[in-house]
Amino acid sequence: MLHSACPECGLDTRQLPREGVAGLLRANAGRWLVVLDHSVVRDRPAPGVWSPLEYACHVRDVFLRFAQRLDLMLTEQDPLFPNWDQDATAIEQRYDRQDPAEVARELSEAAETLAIAFEQVSGPLWERTGRRSDGASFTVETFGRYFIHDPIHHLYDVTGRRHGEEG
Q1: Among the four 64, 125, 144, 167, which has the fewest Cβ within 10 Å?
Q2: How confident is the model over 55-91, as pLDDT tens digits?
Q3: Helix (H, G, I), strand (E, B) or coil at 130
């Protein structure tokens, strides 16, 4: 979602200043805490669709994974990111059985760690690069824009509210 607005969640990363990633990340994490505070957090809306708890576990793990990748980009020359099988992680870590309060705590901590890391990026560090095994290449700036779409889109998946909608 680097070249156009997402037709589903409404986020347009082209309009996002690179320094805005940390603020959006913190705001998004706060909304996940509200989601995790509901009694229906384990209910799947349809077969094959994750529950709010499962999405929150995934978002927590995205925060952790992207913090590792950002660190690689800032400390190594054009690193190749390790592969990550998100679906296997969901099964292996039993996302559906995790404690919502613990997930909320871990998600909040992971979001804050990553937000601080993005806030510390300045000057030419925004142009450092990293790559995925599928050939996709990012600068720290495009990496931040690419990253922030994921938790915002998944919040839309759970709440049905487009980016920027209140409530």
Answers
A1: 167
A2: 999 999 999 999 999 999 999 999 999 999 999 999 9
A3: strand
CA 89, distance to chain mean position in Å, is 15
Joined together, the tokens standing for residue 146 give: 């690419």
Q: Are 167 and 39 in contact (CB under 8 A)?
A: no
Q: What angle do CA 21, 23, 24 make, to 5 degrees?
A: 65
- Residue spans of alpha helices (H) in the chain: 21-35, 52-75, 86-92, 100-119, 140-159
Mapped onto helix, strand or coil, the DSSP state of residue 14 is helix
Euclidean distance between CA atoms 142 and 27, whole angstroms: 20
56, 103 contact by CB (below 8 A): yes
Dist CA 154 CA 48 (whole Å): 15
Tell the CATH superfamily of the 19-38+49-159 domain. Answer: dinb family like domain (1.20.120.450)
Tokens 């296997």 correspond to what residue?
Answer: 88
Q: Which residue has the tokens 């937000």?
A: 115
Q: In this predicted model, what pLDDT tens digit does every residue of 11-68 receive, in sequence order?
A: 999 999 999 999 999 999 999 999 999 878 999 999 999 999 999 999 999 999 999 9
Phi then psi for 47, rounded to 5 degrees? -60, 135
